[in-house]
Amino acid sequence: MTYYYDTMLAEYIKNPGQRGLGLDALADKKFNYEMISYSDISEKKKLSFEEVDLQKAAIYSGEDVYMTYKLYKEQQANPYITNSSVLDSMELPLLKVLSDMEQTGIKIDRDILKGIWLRLEQAISELQKEIHDIAGVEFNINSPKQVGEILFESLWLPSSKKTKTWYSVNAEVLDWLKSEYPIAEKIVTYRHYSKLQSTYIQWLLEVATDEDRIHTSYNQIITSTGRLSSNSPNLQNIPTGNDIAWEIRTAFIPDADEDYLMAFDYSQVEVRLLAIMSGDENLLDAFKQGKDIHQVTGEFIFKTKDISGKQRQFAKAVNFWVIYGISPFGLSKMIDVTQKDAKVYIDAFYENYPKVREFFDDVILWCKRNSFVETMFARRRYIPSINDANKMIQKWAEREAINMPIQWTNADIIKLAMIQVVKMLEDGNYKSTMLLQVHDELVFNIKADEKDELEVKIPYIMENILNNAPIELKVDGAIWKNWKETK
DNA sequence: TAGGATTGCAA
DNA sequence: TATTGCAATCCTA
Fold this sequence. Notes:
The structure is a single chain. By secondary structure, the protein is of the alpha+beta class. Among the domains are: about 5-85, no CATH class; about 110-210, Up-down Bundle (Taq DNA Polymerase, Chain T, domain 4), CATH 1.20.1060.10; about 270-370 and about 385-405, 5' to 3' exonuclease, C-terminal subdomain (DNA polymerase, domain 1, Orthogonal Bundle). About 55% of the residues lie in helices and about 10% in strands. The chain has a four-stranded antiparallel beta sheet. It has a three-stranded antiparallel beta sheet with strand order 2-1-5, with no helix packed on it. The chain has a two-stranded antiparallel ribbon with strand order 3-4. Helix 19 (about 390-425) runs antiparallel to helix 20. The longest helix has about 35 residues, at about 390-425. The protein binds a DNA duplex through helix 8, helix 10, strand 4, helix 16 and helix 19.
């Protein structure tokens, strides 16, 4: 067993959310030592490393090694780092898992992407013509400034919002206009198609390898929420829409014709975690009895067993937003009801899940005393602004404190699941591989003869990450010949 | 050419 | 007056 370590990961678990976790920054911060920069030895950054003068390269490299060691020693003297299992049992094993996923990549079908590209191109040029006709002048539809000029100073449509510098012309504004002014709707559609074409189709085709595979990079230490991020390309924001956007996912295909793509995603993890962590009986009972949690909350809020589809939607939003400590104002904006109604919904939620309120109050109190909050796995996040003199800042910090234990535990759970699932695949000598992580979803390439076993084993591991929890986590799975949307 | 501003995609 | 992050495009400095 090879031992490996990462000073950046250690620094991240100590204080997530901070910038400057690189060797240069840490050497400067901790030892007041200025590292030799690469441009110093490479003459205007033009030289690749093998071209650098050997003497200089040796000193540069030696310094890197020495500083890494010095930093390692410094970190190992920190009891939080050495006592926490988060680094050893979570982040470091995950590092290897992510590295393997990056190298594996996922296969795409270029022809499908090219086909979508052409159809988008056609639609975009038609829309462009129609928009220019209505405007009576040619302009750049991609330029918010020019769109604002045309809509509000040439066609004199009623303007609503402003940005810092100009009329706002975002989707919210255009949606408001589109029932009366067809140009607004056409611009919305134009933008939608341009977005798909340039940000997704174009970009995916550019970064795909000669073997038609896409290799994203995961960043393990960037977020302040414990999540991973993905870039070059970002495979965590591939569209899920139900129009042509949906077809982009059909271009993600298995390694071989006879293989399958399988996706498993955690369902309502955060509400389930809220139930577990708060210990609220009503919430726990609903899950134990396998009830539809949005229905249950809806029945509480609207005081009837017979709630409408719309009421269920409201209840769903309340279940979701309460975890973020949302205010009546925020909720009213989000689901388009009056502030008064929003307050009634939120109050009803707390009234019927009383231990949730207690749990949140306890978290805030704990945070005020200790300046940090923790996940179920004792991962810490410092929130010193919880004691800020400014009430606004304090309230903000309180929402952060409420949300952190749940959101970060959620992130921790899927990290552990990834490690355990990969271990199972390795121990069982399976040929199937884990390809992607999209926050609460894992995507696999599954060999045909392993399908029956793995479609049981993988979700079983995911659902049983928490030992001794009063309720199970729930995982939905789906098997495809491509990566289509589940919802 | 760099970077701020605006916009929009996901969870 | 949820959050986080990645990326495209325009356009000014």
